[in-house]
Amino acid sequence: MANSGKRLLLIENSICSDEVRVALSVNNRVVEFEQEFKEKRQLRGNIYIAHVKRVEPSLQAVFIEYGKNKQGFLSFSEISPDYFNISEKEKEAFFESYSSGDCTEEGNGASANTSSDSTTSRSVNESGNGFVREVSLYRRYKLQDVISVNQKILVQLTKEERGNKGASFTTYITLVGRYCVFMPNSMSRGGVSRRIEDINVRKQLKDILNSIELPKRSGLIVRTVGSGKSKKEIEQDYNYLSSLWQNIQENVSSVNVPSLIYNEADLIMKSIRDFCSNDVEVVISGKEAFETVRQYARNVLKGSKLRYRLYRGFVPIFTYYGIEDQISELYSNRVKLPSGGSLIITLTEAFVSIDVNSGKMTGEDSIEETAYRTNMEAAPEISRQVNLRGLSGLIVVDFIDMLKYQYCRAVESAIRQAFKDDKARVQFSYINDFGLMVFSRQRIKPNIQEINTTECLHCKGIGKVKSNEVIVASILRDLQYVAIRNRNRSFDLVAHGSIIAHIFNNKRDTVSTIEREFNIKLNVSADSNLSIDAFILKRGDDVNLNDCKPLQNSGYKIETSNNERADNSGGLQSNFWLTKWLSRLLSSNS
Fold first, then answer.
1. H/E stretch holding 56
2. Cα three-residue angle 571-577-579, rounded to 5 degrees
3. In what order do the strands lie in the sheet with 307-310?
4. Are 8 and 27 in contact (CB under 8 A)?
5. What is the pLDDT of residue 127?
6. How far is CA 97 from CA 122, 146, 187, 489, in A?
7. DSSP assigned state of 125
8. What SS3 state is found at 93?
9. Which letter, b or e, does each residue of 58-87 get, where b requires 16 or more Cβ atoms within 10 Å of its Cβ?
10. Torsion angle of alpha carbons 52, 57, 60, 66, nearest 10°?
11. How many whole angstroms separate alpha carbon 393 and alpha carbon 235?
12. Residues β-bridged to residue 37
């Protein structure tokens, strides 16, 4: 229903669900999507005052106490020399030798261009020769000699806890503004984002940076969104970040250790900061969110031409603008392409696989042309889905096989172009002889399925469950196993309703055969509360639903009393074998 051709930033603050959702729509198509629950706010970018709890020379890292249940992980290479227990003379000598080298070239484009979710990825220390010189520094000292237990240290969270892994930290602080990234304890002066390719614009921004007086051992990077901005706008952004850093330093001495010093901007402020420009209109649902945007625009974005308004409709804002259906598609593993093809996205623990299918795509002169057109159509959609879903790590794309060399190179170029504006760092390979293209992507936000879905009670995250035939066959094997050792008894079987129905409809004769052969009786009952691949098989009326075991761990436990054991040794079982022996003897004589 929205007008086409507009760039809209939609902010939905739901009071009932305590959830904030933000979507950037370009021509009615979602290109960015973020969400945050008030109870589970992202901690990345937060700054803590912590103390060293444990030094591990074998890991070349220390574990820090920062106020949470789990200890944080701090690598030796992420510890600034400012915290080394060495003389000030040695520190000054090192910093002088470092600054005299050629290490103040342009800043790392990825760090300068990312949002606050990825601002702490070692800043510009990885760029140029600085990283080599930094490595030599950490080879010069031993961790246990320069860092001590209970040492107070200021850290910034770079990776949040995942499963059993604790959070990761760095001491190289980065503060992200709208146009700049300020690094107060960097060993490089920063530079201009490498994604700004225009030579004249780069020269202009470098002149602006050179005119700004930075504190000693600090750096400033102009982000991609700072392209074309005036000196006044960039200086205003830097002054805001500089005052923010001064406030953080003043609070360090007055708070207890460990504690939180600086809380990274929430989702609403980050989206305004990172996504908004003069051609973007902000539509906000919820008075609380609207007031947050208005205060942020007044206090931080002074003089900016931010256009924002309150949405007053009765229809939910995401539904009104046609965004809700596009977000729902992010939970499906199949993505349809406009011309009839599709993408199959499969997540595993180690990597993500994306399969390109031609589907119903027709109309080309040959198979080669159909494959080429499908792959070219899939390239921008792959970039979009990877960004929206927050996919990271190793990603393998299985393109439709193409024989022509120029077609393969064209698809590779299309993929690189599609990821050109991606905020994460991406490294590409070439399409190999099997039609596979591998690339790695930096993790800048959690996977949408990781934070919004839970493991299936039936498949346990596998995505498949055993068929009724396989499950029933396992039940009958168990029944035969216990019947051989417990003849002349009755058994109770409790299983899912569909499994019981399959036994009655297809395995009734098999069950009757087992009952006659071993002189047993089987009583069955259905319980739809059980998992489809779990069952209970016990003797007599002694059925306990709490003893339900998965099929793969079912076991063969038959509970018997002392009286039953005595009866089993001398009663029915003896008569059964006597009768069997007599029948064989009579048949042989006859």
1. strand 47-56
2. 100
3. 29-37, 19-26, 7-14, 280-285, 307-310
4. no
5. 34
6. 20, 20, 11, 87
7. G
8. helix
9. eeebbbbbbebeebbbbbbbbbbbebbeee
10. -10
11. 36
12. 19, 40
- Which residues are registered as beta bridge partners of 56? 61
User: Which regions of the chain are under pLDDT 70?
Assistant: 1-6, 15-17, 95-138, 302-303, 361-365, 540-590
What pLDDT sits at residue 62?
Answer: 92
Residue with tokens 């030599």: 136
- Tokens encoding 58: 């074998």
Contacts of 326 (CB under 8 A, 6+ apart): 29, 30
* Separation CA 107–CA 112 (nearest Å): 7
- Nearest-CA neighbor of 430 among 447, 409, 414? 409
Q: Which residues contact 411 (CB under 8 A, 6 or more apart)?
A: 372, 375, 376, 379, 399, 402, 431, 437
CA 402, CA 373: separation in Å to the nearest integer? Answer: 11
Angle subtended at Cα 1 by Cα 24 and Cα 19, rounded to the nearest 5 degrees:
45
pLDDT of the residue at 551: 41
| Per-residue model confidence (pLDDT) at position 118 | 39
User: How high is the pLDDT of residue 11?
Assistant: 85
Cα separation, 230 vs 509, in Å, equals 86
